[in-house]
Design goal:
The complex is a heterodimer of chains A (220) and B (408). By secondary structure, chain A is α/β, with parallel strands linked by helices. Chain A is 36% helix and 25% strand. In chain A, a hairpin with a 2-residue loop joins strand 4 (55-60) and strand 5. The longest helix of chain A is centred in the C-terminal third of the chain and has 17 residues, at 171-187. With 408 residues, chain B is α+β, with helices and mostly antiparallel strands. Chain B folds into two domains: 3-46 and 268-406, no CATH class; 55-259, no CATH class. Chain B has helices at residues 3-13, 15-50, 63-70, 84-89, 148-154, 203-215, 243-253, 261-305, 307-316, 320-361, 372-397, 401-406, and strands at residues 55-58, 81-82, 95-107, 110-115, 132-135, 143-146, 161-162, 165-166, 182-188, 198-202, 229-230, 232-237, 257-259. The longest helix of chain B has 45 residues, at 261-305. The two termini of chain B are 26 Å apart. The chains are: A alpha/beta (220), B alpha+beta (408).
Chain lengths: 220, 408
């Protein structure tokens, strides 16, 4: 599902990301684990097409993305990737329902007439049917992350990339959000890549990739 | 959910900033709307009135003063001319309408205009500025037909009497013709013309009032007249094409002066009001330009504050074009709302000025009407708004998704 080979990306003066090989299978759930600054998020950005490698190959769902045009990357992200962020990243002017619909609107992967039904279904599955018309600012942090999960899965993506999805949550809420995320990814047969520095969270996923040392200083 | 809806939601999300920007655009648009409407309407009404008569003949002096005093009842007459010129033009083959005018008295600041009865049946350009709303036209001397403004301001009603005072301005020092009261026999319908401010009577009344004045001893008055004088002569020609030739002939062959009303009015517009209009329009466009700058700054700041949202949208699959378009649409909404609010402001200004203009010159100014000039002005404002949106939109277009998400 995801293959990185000899990927290099310069991050700043004398600092670079380098990954010789990384493979995950379709439908797998893998934690990208490591300490802060080790390159976990950079790896996630390279896989999701938010960053381009300077060299090497990034293949997702059978497509090499490193040479895609800007619009090609837009389409790739829209069709195949679902994002869950640490800070939820809901759009504040819009309601819960509109936030989920917006994901489908930009991705444009299903007919417009299905947007609302799909959004309602996903919000019901994350237990937020009663907050459809609420603005994100009125939700608890746990509820916000559940909206973000519903939005990420609404497009039926091939891959969910979750960057520290429980980083802003208290342990109890983090646990319930993790359970929800893992269950939904399993139900939807979506591949999950989850970035975390928390070993306990990483251990809840079947696979773990240790990112320690992916970012290092280059020899002058 | 369309880009229009998305753009509107972001504007609504920052209502105060949006409202202030809209108001700044509205101020400029309001000024432009009011100036264009006032220009168009006053010019149209002045020209309409100016077209009523092809030629005005009066005493030698300033032709514009002659036109303003006899057609618009705005200025002092240039003097009197011998009635002989009236007699000489009667039956002239080029003349289809000939109306003598005698002025010299007023009531409560409204001019008493002595004319012949046939002027009341005159319908210049198909208009009927002498239509009565009640009563009848004058038939004998010292019967008066009053304009709508006169009736409103003086509360004169049918059957009421009043006395004229010497001179055309209201003054407590003016001589009052107590012995020759006028009786109101007709009240005119409001026509939005200078007639609203006039009191019409048979020209014989004016002659009689002043003959009597001579008898009662104000021989020293420089305005005293005798029956053989008129203040002016309003002339309708068989064809407007012969106006210049006719005017030249009168000026060359008589002691009187002929003027073409429409020519004088257009000169006045070009020389005086034209410049004033340009200055006001320039101020209006300057305000709009400043408003455009405020749109630019407002949107630019909003984009800086919204980098995260833009990055999220891009991560969700929004294309650069959609992000650019959404910001341009925000500029469009702000400008459009500004134009709408400006139109209302302009109408409010026109309504406020309408009261003044009705009282001063008898012209009604309607609320801002959509004219070709106004559409062009609004289009220019809209274009300025859209151009102001380009820089912020470009900033949004260049969103670096990974960096902006990482900066959260």
């Amino acid at each position: 599902m995801v293959i990185l080979e000899n990927v290099k990306r310069k991050l700043g003066p004398g600092v670079a990301f380098s990954c010789e090989a990384f493979h995950v299978a379709q439908g797998s759930r893998t934690a990208l684990w490591g300490p802060s600054g080790c390159g976990k998020s950079t790896m996630l950005n390279l896989i999701s097409g938010l960053l381009r490698p300077d060299s090497g190959t990034v293949q997702v769902d059978g497509q090499e993305i490193q040479n895609l045009s800007e619009s090609g990357l837009d389409a790739f992200r829209a069709e195949r990737i679902g994002f869950v962020f640490q800070t939820f990243n809901l759009l504040s002017p819009f309601t819960v329902l509109q936030n989920v619909i917006l994901g489908m609107r930009f991705a444009d992967v299903r007919p417009e007439k299905e947007w609302k039904d799909r959004a309602l279904t996903m919000l019901e599955r994350v237990g937020l049917s009663h907050r459809l018309n609420s603005k994100p600012g009125t939700l608890s942090v746990g509820e916000r992350q559940r909206v973000a999960i519903a939005r990420a899965l609404a497009n039926t993506p091939k891959l969910i990339v979750a960057d520290e999805p429980t980083g802003s949550l208290d342990p109890k809420t983090a646990d319930s959000v993790m359970t929800l995320l893992l269950d939904l990814c399993a139900q939807e047969a979506v591949t999950l890549l989850l970035v975390t520095h928390d070993k306990g969270i990483a251990d809840r996923l079947p696979g773990t990739f240790d990112c320690t040392g992916l970012v290092r200083e280059e020899a002058l | 959910m369309s880009l229009w809806h998305i753009a509107w939601s972001y504007l609504w999300n920052r209502k105060l900033t949006t409202a202030l920007t809209v108001i700044s655009v509205a101020l400029g648009v309001g000024l432009i709307s009011a100036v264009l409407t006032l220009r168009d309407e006053t010019q149209r009404r002045f020209e309409e009135e100016g077209q009523s008569f092809d030629i005005v003949i009066g005493a030698k002096g300033n032709p514009l003063q002659l036109v303003l005093s006899t057609v618009y009842f705005l200025d002092a007459p240039t003097g009197n001319v011998d009635i002989e010129i009236y007699e000489s033009l009667k039956g002239h083959e080029d003349v289809t309408g000939l109306f003598p005018v005698g002025m010299g008295d007023s009531y409560s600041g409204f001019r008493i205009v002595g004319v012949t009865r046939d002027l009341m049946d005159f319908t210049p350009g198909g208009r009927t500025p002498y239509t009565l709303t009640s009563g009848r036209y004058f038939e004998t001397p010292f019967e008066a037909v009053i304009g709508a403004n006169v009736a409103e301001d003086t509360n004169l009603e049918l059957g009421d009497t009043f006395v004229g005072t010497h001179g055309l301005m209201a003054s407590v020092m003016a001589e009052v013709h107590e012995e020759r009261p006028y009786t109101v026999v007709g009240i005119m319908e409001r026509s939005g013309s200078p007639n609203d401010r006039a009191i019409f009577c048979d020209i014989q009344s004016v002659w009689d009032a002043h003959s009597h004045g001579d008898d009662s001893g104000h021989e020293s008055d420089e305005h005293h007249h005798h029956e053989q004088e008129i203040t002016a002569l309003l002339v309708k020609l068989a064809s407007p094409a012969i106006r210049f030739e006719f005017k030249d002939r009168i000026n060359r062959t008589s002691n009187a002066m002929a003027a073409i009303p429409i020519q004088e009015i257009q000169k006045l517009y070009e020389q005086l009001l034209g410049t004033a209009k340009l200055v006001l329009l320039a101020i209006g466009y300057l305000v709009v330009a400043i408003s455009a700058l405020s749109i630019l700054i407002g949107l630019y700041m909003a984009i800086l504050q919204r980098k995260r949202d833009l990055a999220i949208m891009r991560a969700l699959g929004a294309t650069r074009g959609e992000i650019f378009g959404a910001v341009i649409i925000e500029a469009f909404w702000v400008t459009l709302l500004g134009i709408g609010a400006g139109w209302l402001m302009g109408s409010a200004v026109c309504m406020a000025l309408n009261r003044y203009l009705v009282a001063q010159v008898g012209f009604h100014v309607p609320p801002v009407r959509i004219s070709a000039d106004l559409v062009a002005a609004y289009s220019a404002v809209l274009l300025m708004g859209l151009v102001a949106g380009i820089l912020p939109a470009w900033q949004a277009y260049r969103t670096n998704v990974a960096r902006d998400l990482a900066e959260l």
